[in-house]
Amino acid sequence: MPHPNRNFPVLSARDKLLPFYLLGIGLHHEQEHIRRDQGIEDYQWIQCRSGVGKLKLSETEHIVKPGMGMLLFPGQKHEYYALSDSWEVDWIIFDGNGSANLFETVGIVDTCVYTLAQPEYLLSRMRELLQAALTPQEQTLSNYACSAILYTLLTEIIQRVSVEGSDTVGQQYERLKPVLDYIEQQYAEEITLPTLAGLICVTPEYFCHLFKKTTGIRPISYVNQVRVNKSKELLLDNVQRGMEDIARQVGFESTSYYGAIFKKLERITPGSFRRSYQKS
């Protein structure tokens, strides 16, 4: 009889080729004292339901309360235990070659404790993941279903976590929304850093820092990406339209600069892109 709140899926070698795969899940777990001097082999997310615990790393200690979670990275020494009489948590163990890259997109590269926006929503996602793991069906199909839900859960975690009172990724993007909307609407016009910074009432210097921290690229690089994407539509809408006309309509000052940026981002020239979609 399977445990109603815990599951350890059986994985084949093929299942472990998935970018994300579930190794174990437990809900409403009464957390015991754990010490791992060599760390763990995989990733683990532990979210506090009730009570209080402590996570000890090599050089830091963190209190873990309801509305908070611990993300444990492979191979990093750690120890955690209850500070209250009862410490109830939900946890998942997972891996896959997409895990490190996903976390790196928001600058998460080490074990840490995070404060969560909408923690109950994440707990509901974990219940959905457990249900998929427990659903009777062919094991590989179950693992595929778990992989899809796990990916959704992890992307929602990284959007909702913050450290020491900083904004979550979702909040950072919300702050930049006026800028992103402006670029989407005004890409064909001249766009300057002071103009973009003024939309959210910060200095150009701080704006560049905030934009790079949130998106991973500089503002002008983002503008160029939007312009190149818009140019693709024009390249395909009318195959007779010249490159100079297209470059001008999406905001590039010259055809040569447009071609250089297009090739840098897409690894092919605008003309090659157009020909690759033309009927033979």
Describe it for me?
With 280 residues, this protein is of the alpha+beta class. The protein has ten helices and eleven strands. The strands form two sheets. A seven-stranded antiparallel sheet has the order 1-2-9-4-7-10-11, covered by helices on one side. Helix 2 packs antiparallel against helix 3 and helix 5 packs across helix 6. It is elongated and about 70 Å long. The protein starts with 5 loop residues before the first strand and ends with a helix.
Overview features:
280 residues; alpha+beta; Jelly Rolls; Arc Repressor Mutant, subunit A; 2 domains; 7-stranded antiparallel β-sheet
In the predicted model, the low-confidence regions spanning at least 5 consecutive residues are: none
Listing every helix as H and every strand as E from the N terminus to the C terminus, the arrangement reads: EEEEEEEEEHEHHEHHHHHHH
Say how many strands there are: 11
Q: Percent of residues in beta strands?
A: 15-25%
Average pLDDT across residues? 91
CATH topology description of the largest domain: Jelly Rolls
For this structure, what is the CATH class of the largest domain? Answer: Mainly Beta
CATH superfamily of the largest domain: Regulatory protein AraC
- Number of helix segments? 10
Which range best describes the helical content: under 10%, 10-25%, 25-40%, 40-55%, 55-70% or over 70%?
40-55%
User: What is the overall shape?
Assistant: elongated
Radius of gyration in whole Å, from Cα? 24 Å
Give the second-level CATH assignment, the architecture of the largest domain: Sandwich
Please describe the biggest sheet, giving its number of strands, its sense, and whether it closes into a barrel: 7 strands, antiparallel
Span of the ends, CA to CA? 61 Å
Number of domains: 2
Strand order of the largest sheet: 1-2-9-4-7-10-11
Structural class: alpha+beta
